[in-house]
């Protein structure tokens, strides 16, 4: 079955009908990939408190589910996420602000999952939605997508990791340009400055993100997760290069016995030679 057909069948289950209200966050497994979609298209997929709770719960369940190895985060209806719902903010009280102090307003942005997440960016990924995209490991961005710190205009600060992750991704100088001006960044510029890992055509973002996730899930997963965790540790937690390298080595040694030895045996047998990504077929000499 094609990727497009898989997606069509999956999304049809989540469309609004006259007898059933849509969920705030859709969830579907497609070919072993967990597809998690923000589902408030009438609000440009802006997130309110209930949506944030559901996003958090969905990613907790994804991380605990051994049947899926990669997730794709997207927005239903052609827009990734327009940030936090300003209508809810406009009538906020101390209860909501206290909630923000305890957990990321956008939901999962304070989590470090054990498994990789690919963001499919189409339409707007702005304000808190921009931060949600930065939280993901990889970003597949459509050419017509728009990213940026649009909350600058309304006195809303970044509080979902934006000031933490953005400098690590694109450097301090470019970060200051974006957070001080609040200007829009299109898909092409996002790719040029390192915000986008893949730049794709309009309307293809979700399918391309699914294909990328499918490639990732084919690899030995414990090794992949260990290297991913080491990279995050080196970037955000280690006090020195030496500490980062010690962490990397300490966690990598056990993986050799878990997956590395078997991988070496496959290579010796002829699988994966000459740079081939076919991990099941012996390459001819």
Automatic annotation (TrEMBL):
Pfam families, alphabetized: ECH_1 (PF00378)
Record GO terms (molecular function): catalytic activity
Segments forming a coiled coil: none
Family that this chain belongs to: Belongs to the enoyl-CoA hydratase/isomerase family.
Protein name: Uncharacterized protein
Organism whose genome encodes this protein: Varroa destructor
SUPFAM superfamilies xref list: ClpP/crotonase
């Amino acid at each position: 079955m094609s990727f497009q057909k898989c997606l069509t069948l999956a999304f049809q289950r989540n469309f609004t009908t006259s007898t059933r209200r849509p969920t705030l966050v859709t969830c579907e497994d497609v070919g072993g990939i967990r597809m998690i979609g923000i589902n408030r298209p009438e609000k440009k997929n802006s997130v309110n408190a209930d949506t944030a709770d559901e996003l958090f719960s969905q990613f907790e369940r994804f991380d605990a589910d051994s049947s899926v190895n990669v997730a794709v985060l997207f927005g239903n209806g052609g827009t990734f996420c327009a940030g936090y719902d300003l209508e809810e903010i406009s009538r906020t009280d101390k209860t909501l602000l206290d909630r923000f102090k305890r957990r990321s307003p956008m939901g999962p942005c304070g989590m470090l999952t054990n498994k990789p997440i690919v963001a499919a960016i189409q339409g707007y990924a702005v304000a808190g939605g921009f931060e949600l995209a930065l939280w993901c490991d990889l970003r597949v961005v459509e050419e017509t997508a728009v990213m940026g710190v649009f909350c600058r205009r309304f006195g809303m600060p970044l509080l979902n990791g934006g000031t933490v992750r953005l400098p690590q991704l694109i450097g301090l100088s470019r970060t200051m340009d974006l957070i001080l001006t609040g200007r829009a960044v299109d898909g092409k510029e996002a790719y040029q400055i390192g915000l986008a890992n893949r730049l794709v055509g309009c309307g293809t973002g979700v399918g391309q993100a699914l294909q990328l996730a499918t490639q990732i899930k084919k690899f030995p997963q414990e090794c992949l997760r260990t290297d991913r965790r080491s990279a995050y540790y080196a970037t955000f937690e280690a006090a020195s290069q030496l500490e980062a390298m010690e962490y990397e080595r300490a966690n990598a040694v056990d993986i050799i016995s878990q997956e590395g030895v078997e991988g070496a045996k496959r290579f010796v047998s002829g699988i994966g030679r000459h740079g081939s990504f076919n991990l099941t077929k012996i390459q001819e000499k």
